[in-house]
Amino acid sequence: QVQLVESGGGLVQAGGSLRLSCAASGIIRSFSAMGWYRQAPGKHRELVATITSGGATNYADSVKGRFTIFRANARNPMYLQMNSLKPEDTAVYYCHLDSAVTGRSWGQGTQVTVSS
Question: Are 6 and 105 within 8 A, CB to CB?
Fold first, then answer.
């Protein structure tokens, strides 16, 4: 069983920066990818960024050039560095971990609020 705990959310002014972290624990088998989704009030959960076990990254068009996803390995925290934040980035951010054995696991989410 995999447990994911996010941290680093908060309130920031537009143009500011935040770094989210996601710590994974438990039994992690056949890790394939980790990533971040976000969900704003009244909207569907949407992909923000992912990183595979090989280090390949993928970003939503809306965050390209502003957000960076990185990690050391499956057991070290995964990070999402968010720069040049905009009010439309306001959402609850969820991290996930994909495993060929246990499927997709989710964290509890962390709130990011960007004021204009």
Answer: no
- Which residue has 């972290």 as its token pair? 21
Q: Using CB atoms within 10 A of its CB, is residue 91 exposed (0-12), middle (13-18) or buried (19+)?
A: buried
Q: Are 78 and 67 in contact (CB under 8 A)?
A: no
Q: Which residue in the block uniquely carries the two structure tokens 């394939």?
A: 32
Judge residue 21's burial from the number of C-beta atoms within 10 Å of its C-beta, 0-12 exposed, 13-18 middle, 19 or more buried: middle
Pairing label, strands 110-115, 10-13: parallel
Question: Looking at the predicted structure, is the pLDDT value of residue 63 above 70?
Answer: yes
Residue closest to 81 by CA, chosen among 66, 98, 68: 68
User: Residues 95-108: pLDDT tens digits?
Assistant: 999 988 889 999 99
Residue 35: pLDDT over 70: yes
